[in-house]
Amino acid sequence: MESVGVNALLERVLGLEGLCVRGASLQPEGLVVQVRPRLRAPRCGICNDFWRGYDTRPERRWRHLALERTPVWLSYAPRRVECPAHGVRVERVPWAAHASLFTTELEQMVPWLWRRIGLPATRRLMGFSWSTAEHLLHRPVVPLPDLKRIEEHYLVGADALSLRCHAQDLAVAMEHLGKPVSSEQWALRSPAALEAAGGVRPQSMGL
Questions:
Q1: What is the per-residue pLDDT for 35?
Q2: CB under 8 Å, gap of 24 or more: what pairs does 164-171 form?
Q3: Closest to 80 (Cα-Cα) out of 51, 102, 40, 37
Q4: Burial label, 10 (beta-carbon count in 10 A; 0-12, 13-18, 19+)
Q5: I need a labelling partner for 23 at 20 to 30 A (CA). Which of 99, 115, 116, 187 fits?
């Protein structure tokens, strides 16, 4: 089994591109993760171009998606750059939009949940006040999330010993994959039925 350090493990758990984890601590307000941009050179928060650093601001935090019931905060002391076009500006960070107090993934999650369960349930689930939830709902600068990883169905595994007992469940799984199974195939109640429908033997599908 592959062994990884705590910081590398947190980078995988957070799943955010373009940042390095420097440490973490569990505090009363939640899990505070110290991060920094993977790129050393700072970029202007407006035009996204690389410019010479001006100074460093005090450490600040961005609210991220919670881990189960534990709130997660990303902590970093942002630099300021001297941009010829926009003056002295706080650098752009890869995990959040400019001048935002929340990570991009969190800002994307709020409208996605609102469309499916409504604002009251979204507010309770995310642990936000009404004003914070409405603010995130109407922010126009955040791009829509990639819904493929949330809404697409994946066949994780199938148990060849359960074909006789759970033929209907496997038929539903194959239907989601775009490979419907006929009633005649499932009437056979044999591993060959799944193989004929999906081209994969059940023994090779288990984890």
A1: 96
A2: 164/189, 167/193, 170/194
A3: 51
A4: buried
A5: 99
Using DSSP, state whether 39 is helix, strand or coil: coil
Tell whether the model's pLDDT for residue 119 goes beyond 60. yes
Q: Residue 151: left if φ>0, alpha if ψ -120 to 50, beta else—which one? A: alpha
Contact 170, 181 (CB under 8 A): yes
Tokens at 97, concatenated: 């939009």
Asked whether residue 146 carries a pLDDT value surpassing 70, the answer given is no
What strand order describes the sheet that includes 60-67? Answer: 19-27, 30-37, 70-76, 60-67
| Contacts of residue 191, Cβ cutoff 8 Å, sequence gap at least 6 | 160, 163, 201, 202, 203
Angle between helices 191-198 and 167-176 (to 10 degrees): 10
Q: Do the strands 30-37 and 70-76 form a parallel or antiparallel pair, or are they unpaired?
A: parallel
pTM: 0.67
The pLDDT score that the predictor gives to residue 115 is 86
- The model's pLDDT over 154-195, given as tens digits with 9 standing for 90+, comes to 555 544 445 455 555 555 555 555 555 555 554 444 555 555
In whole angstroms, give the CA distance from residue 111 to residue 167: 37
| Contact by Cβ (8 Å): 10, 21 | yes
Please provide residue 200's backbone torsions phi and psi, each rounded to the nearest 5 degrees.
-130, 130
